[in-house]
Amino acid sequence: MILAEVKPAARPLSPHLQIYRWSWTMAMSIAHRVTGTGLYLGTVLIAAWLVAAASGPAAYDAAQAVAGSIIGLLVLFLYSFALLHHMVGGLRHFIWDMGHGFDPQTRTNLAKYSVFVSGGLTLLVWIAALALR
After folding, report:
1. DSSP H stretches of helix in the chain
2. Is the confidence at residue 115, as pLDDT, over 90?
């Protein structure tokens, strides 16, 4: 018995980055997912710091030395930016959930401004924290 050759059905390929054009809303959607992952990892570091604080002065001093180093401060800065950026992205989604901001210009503006608002809030938090030290 000879089997007939089966030809694949002619269907469109799945869309991919060669088809889609990068847009602000696409970039902010990806950034929202990345900041969510960063928050998860940063929360593990905060839990480690709390464990060190509960473990005694030697462990706490070691954790503070790491957190107070240049790399530690950079990680803390990025963590605070991720936290605020994720919050602002959540507010953007809340606006959409209320049925507003769907026209193309408003959608793009909300995405653009979320970067600047979260960056500005991060700087304000750090300026306030350093001023109150």
Report:
1. 24-55, 57-68, 70-97, 104-131
2. yes
